[in-house]
Design goal:
Length: 182
């Protein structure tokens, strides 16, 4: 009995010629790709590799760019922490809040200064933290000084916005030190 694809093609064979042999010859003939795929039971998969590559490559590049963005964000956070420590070191010996803020901004010079916020707070006698006095004579040895650095880090890639993390990452660093006197 001929193969189903050969029956659909209405192939007539002579008694001397085997139906199977005739069908195989027809399937392998040029221009009979459609008949060949039906006879073998295999579907055409041309372009499947390109589609698979497009899916895998897009996921791979998203992962690579997310890693790069994380690296830049971590570098920025490390810079804000360093700037807060530098401001606290100066606050241990210099009671001038403007000089402390200047030191912090110098230490974070590679950051966008318009997105950088520096706050200097003081605690007198173990009380709560509030704005530091501008007069150097009102600072007493043993007071605590807190330097807070906030930075709105803009993401390098738009990926965090796609997943709902917003446009900026708010980085917060602080450092406290005891005022030792001028």
């Amino acid at each position: 009995m001929p193969a189903p694809a050969c029956r659909r093609a209405n192939i007539v064979t002579t008694v001397a010629e085997s139906p199977r042999r005739r069908c195989r010859a027809l399937v392998g003939a040029p221009g009979n790709h459609r008949l060949a795929s039906r006879a073998r039971g295999v579907h055409d998969e041309s372009g499947a590799a390109a589609v698979e590559f497009a899916i895998v490559a897009s996921l791979f590049f998203m992962l690579v760019f997310a890693i790069i963005d994380f690296g830049f964000g971590f570098h920025t956070w490390n810079g804000t922490a360093h700037a807060a420590r530098e401001g606290a070191r100066l606050a241990a010996v210099d009671p001038d809040p403007a000089a402390i803020e200047g030191r912090v901004r110098d230490a974070a010079g590679f950051l966008d200064q318009t997105k950088l916020t520096v706050t200097v707070q003081c605690s007198r006698g173990g009380g709560g933290f509030s704005a530091c006095p501008t007069s150097a004579s009102s600072w007493a040895e043993g007071d605590y000084v807190r330097v807070i650095v906030d930075y709105a880090y803009p993401y390098f890639t738009p990926l965090p916005g796609f997943v709902g993390l917003g446009d900026d990452l708010n980085l917060h660093s602080q450092s406290e030190v005891r005022f030792e006197g001028a």
